[in-house]
Design brief:
single chain, mainly alpha
Length: about 200
């Protein structure tokens, strides 16, 4: 193996990093149709502000806004009081399985479920999921990495790529998704420190 083979490795690793960043943004809900979201949110909040929107329509509007039916009107309205509420809504939808809503002195508060309340445990889990993602992602890319040294035929590398992708792509995605859930959940819980205690939409 000569030096030209080693020079190919940084290019492969760079592509891996760029792809991982793209997948993380996708997993954490950062890539959305912003113009369509803006128009819909503007129309929905305008309808709510008018005071003539039926509670059923309001709930369905909120669910359409966040892209899931597994969320209540009260949860959305609370998150709308937080700083950077658009990102907080996305974070909550993503991390909801790890969070719980409690009432404290008449105020709503989001916190991690008892099983995940330890910051050390959450950090350990995030590192674990990132490591799993790295392992599975490298296994997906292994035919192309090994090709640097073994010079597979096109037919062989395509076959190996199909096998590695079918076996390891889904575990890689799920690992990244779970890590993103915990990371965004931590961001959301921490963001409550800047809670405005004032709804953005007044009735």
């Amino acid at each position: 193996m000569d030096i030209s083979d080693w020079l190919k490795l940084p290019a492969v690793l760079s592509a891996f990093v760029v792809l991982s960043k793209f997948l993380y943004d996708l997993a954490s809900g950062k890539r959305t149709k912003l113009r369509e979201d803006y128009r819909f949110a503007k129309e929905l909040l305008s309808d709510i502000e008018s005071g003539h929107l039926h509670p059923y329509a309001k709930q369905k509007g909120y669910q359409a806004l966040v892209g899931t039916t597994n969320i209540s009107t009260e949860e959305v309205e609370y998150i709308l009081t937080l700083k950077d509420s658009a990102q907080c809504l996305s974070d909550y939808v993503l991390a909801r399985k790890y969070l719980e809503k409690i009432e404290s002195r008449g105020n709503t508060l989001l916190r991690f479920k008892p099983k995940y309340c330890s910051e050390k445990k959450r950090l350990t889990l995030i590192i674990w999921y990132v490591c799993l993602y790295f392992i599975f992602a490298m296994l997906v890319a292994s035919p192309f990495i090994l090709n640097i040294w073994f010079n597979f035929s096109v037919k062989d590398i395509l076959l190996l790529a199909i096998i590695s992708t079918s076996l390891f792509a889904l575990p890689a995605w799920l690992s990244l998704k779970e890590g993103a859930r915990l990371a965004r959940g931590q961001h959301l819980v921490a963001n409550q420190k800047s809670h405005s205690w004032k709804l953005l939409v007044q009735y």
